[in-house]
């Protein structure tokens, strides 16, 4: 077992991830659902800022890409005229505080001082962030601290300004930068000010930096902060002035007030949804880190979803895939249903574009894009066949909608959102072809196993269509809506092929290597194969077919769920570990997509791993009547498993 030592962690507990090595460093996004600030190993600097839901064309091919924002928390710091740099510090360490949503870097600078730099994206104030600097002088010194902003290459026409606003006796210094996205689609504005404990320092502009200087006494702790925010014209008609209101608000609040509101917001998340593992600190840290990242990448009522890499990078262009509905959503539905609802709101708002896509290809109803951005149009790069042919996502979306109703039993919500189910069902009955024997097929698709292109009757595509159609029929019955007879006929007669007792990945499948679980998904999360012997046969066969070198992490998470439900404790635990360990990157164990990639943070994989805990070991089952709590299964490596805040009644499950 590889533990925390692999990741350069000298100290360890269930809420903190410590690093003391900068080698092969992969940072963590401090995010609040709107902005993601990625940590760096360079002192007093962030790596990048990702803006949720803001897209513009990429320079390579014009395909939409999530936008990197202006990095507004960066600091140049000099002590006795000597600048703090990456190569002249010592005793570097960094800690991610998952309980409070902060990252703190600590280091010594020569014999002058020790310095702490804490960054956070404020969970309570969604467009704002703060960097708190604490200096402990080892002798009397003079410091100069200057805030500077880094504008990424993809932003253009950047302009900066510094001005001191005045309202009666209040002086409000504000430093800001405004730029345009690559094609000019959006304006991005960031603004900051300095907050001080005690006496306020006079800020001065030097070139493109704003800051102050001050003499410090030996041993006397000195603390200040850079506080501000970032806004875009996607959300605001006047992002420049709204961004300036962020530091002005911060000035009136003060460091501790802002920090405490942020901590309280995180405490509320953990109080309403947490997983506690006793007896296995490594598993506890990794499970909580997965939750921390999922929570960081979404916030209720934003009507935004989660990209595969969340707010940690521009990976996969920040587009929304099935990753959201199939892999991340089930965990959010169980523990943070308001976040899960936001993911559905995102799809509901783009239903008309899904209907347009169906029309484009000659189908009826709604056909959701494989990759989606803020427009809801197909955003997959043109060269990728998945954009046109990986169509199971339309069923994945519909199933997620039904599962939200099942979870809440909220008929008013179902009535308001029913048209998503109806329109996607109409797509499937227009998509199938009728065979001579009266059965139905879906021809020429890319399934969950993306290694197999242009296949007929892919198992997962057909099964998810069956489940989506049957769910639509149930919803129509509840709401007393008309039922299209074709929904019934197709859901009963859509083919899933089998050969020699094994469910076929697709028609004519001959045992080729597959990218990830496909057939096994028919047992979980779908409810299409429920016979225990068939589940066991398909597991035994397909576990050996999955790409062991480059397959993504999700397959192992699903296999863990299935083996847990079969009562095989050892295999369930082995696949649970396999779902994250080969994909962990130093120093904090951030998720990469596969064992051989370096593209963290892969929120999709985190979602699959968490499903192994909740829906596997935890014994939780999604049914039409809501969550069902089965006995569960405890790995011998753990003393107990507690899932806190699950279900609409915020239940606590404990398995010992």
Summary of the model, kept short:
By secondary structure, the protein is α+β, with helices and mostly antiparallel strands.
Structure report:
31% of the residues lie in helices and 27% in strands. With 656 residues, it is of the alpha+beta class. The protein has a domain of 237 residues: Beta-galactosidase, Chain A, domain 5 (Distorted Sandwich). The strands form 8 sheets. Strands 1-8-9-10-11-18-15-14-13 form a 9-stranded antiparallel sheet, covered by helices on one side. It is globular, with a radius of gyration of 26 Å. The N terminus is likely disordered. This is Glycoside hydrolase family 65 protein. Pfam families: Glyco_hydro_65m, Glyco_hydro_65N. One of its GO terms (molecular function) is hydrolase activity, hydrolyzing O-glycosyl compounds.
């Amino acid at each position: 077992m590889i533990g925390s030592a692999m990741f350069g962690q000298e100290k360890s507990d269930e809420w903190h991830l410590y690093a003391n090595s900068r080698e092969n460093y992969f940072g963590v996004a401090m995010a609040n659902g709107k902005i993601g600030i990625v940590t760096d190993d360079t002192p007093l600097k962030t790596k990048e800022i990702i803006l949720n839901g803001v897209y513009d064309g990429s320079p390579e091919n014009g395909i939409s890409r999530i936008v990197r924002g202006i990095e507004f928390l960066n600091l140049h710091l000099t002590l006795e005229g000597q600048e703090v740099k990456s190569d002249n510090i010592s005793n570097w360490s960094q800690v991610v505080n998952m309980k409070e949503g902060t990252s703190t870097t600590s280091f010594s600078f020569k014999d002058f001082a020790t310095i702490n730099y804490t960054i956070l994206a404020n969970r309570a104030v969604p467009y704002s962030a703060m960097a708190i600097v604490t200096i402990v002088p080892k002798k009397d010194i003079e410091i100069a601290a200057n805030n500077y902003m880094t504008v990424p290459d993809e932003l253009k026409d950047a302009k900066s300004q510094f001005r001191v606003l005045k309202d009666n006796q209040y002086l409000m210094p504000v430093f800001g930068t405004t730029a345009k996205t690559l094609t000019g689609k959006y304006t991005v504005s960031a603004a900051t000010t300095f907050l001080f404990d005690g006496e306020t320092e006079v800020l001065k502009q030097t070139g493109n930096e704003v800051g102050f200087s001050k003499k410090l006494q030996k041993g006397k702790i000195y603390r200040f902060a850079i506080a501000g925010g970032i806004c875009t014209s996607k959300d605001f008609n006047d992002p420049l002035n709204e961004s300036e209101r962020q530091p002005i608000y911060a000035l009136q609040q003060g460091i501790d007030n802002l920090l405490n509101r942020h901590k309280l917001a995180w405490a509320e998340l953990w109080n309403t949804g947490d997983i506690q593992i006793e007896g296995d600190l490594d598993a506890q840290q990794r499970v909580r880190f997965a939750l921390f990242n999922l929570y960081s990448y979404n916030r209720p009522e934003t009507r935004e979803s989660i990209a595969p890499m969340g707010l940690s990078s521009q990976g996969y262009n920040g587009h929304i895939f099935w990753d959201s509905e199939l892999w991340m959503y089930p965990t959010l539905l169980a523990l943070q249903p308001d976040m899960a609802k936001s993911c559905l709101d995102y799809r509901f708002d783009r239903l008309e574009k899904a209907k347009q896509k169906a029309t484009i290809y000659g189908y009826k109803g709604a056909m959701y894009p494989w990759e989606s951005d803020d427009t809801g149009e197909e955003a997959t790069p043109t060269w990728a066949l998945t954009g046109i042919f990986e169509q199971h996502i339309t069923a994945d979306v519909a199933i997620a909608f039904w599962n939200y109703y099942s979870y809440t039993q909220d008929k008013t919500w179902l009535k308001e959102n029913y048209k998503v189910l109806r329109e996607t069902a109409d797509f499937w009955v227009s998509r199938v072809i009728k065979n001579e024997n009266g059965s139905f097929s879906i021809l020429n698709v890319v399934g969950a196993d993306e290694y197999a292109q242009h296949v007929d009757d892919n198992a997962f595509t057909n099964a998810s269509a069956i489940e989506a159609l049957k769910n639509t029929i149930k919803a129509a019955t509840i709401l007393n809506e008309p039922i299209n007879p074709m929904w019934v006929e197709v859901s009963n007669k859509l083919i899933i092929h089998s050969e020699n007792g094994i469910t076929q990945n697709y028609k004519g499948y001959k045992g080729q290597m597959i990218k990830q679980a496909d057939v096994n998904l028919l047992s979980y999360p779908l409810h299409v194969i429920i016979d225990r012997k068939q589940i066991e046969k398909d597991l035994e066969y397909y576990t050996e077919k999955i790409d062991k070198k480059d397959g993504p992490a999700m397959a192992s998470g699903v296999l863990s769920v299935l083996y847990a439900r079969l009562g095989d404790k050892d295999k369930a635990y082995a696949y649970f570990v396999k779902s994250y360990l080969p994909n962990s990157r130093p120093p904090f164990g951030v998720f990469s997509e596969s064992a051989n990639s370096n593209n963290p943070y892969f929120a999709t994989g985190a979602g699959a791993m968490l499903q192994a805990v909740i829906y596997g070991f935890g014994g939780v089952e999604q049914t039409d009547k809501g969550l069902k709590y089965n006995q569960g299964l405890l790995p011998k490596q753990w003393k107990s498993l507690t899932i806190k805040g699950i279900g609409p009644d915020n239940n606590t499950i404990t398995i010992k």
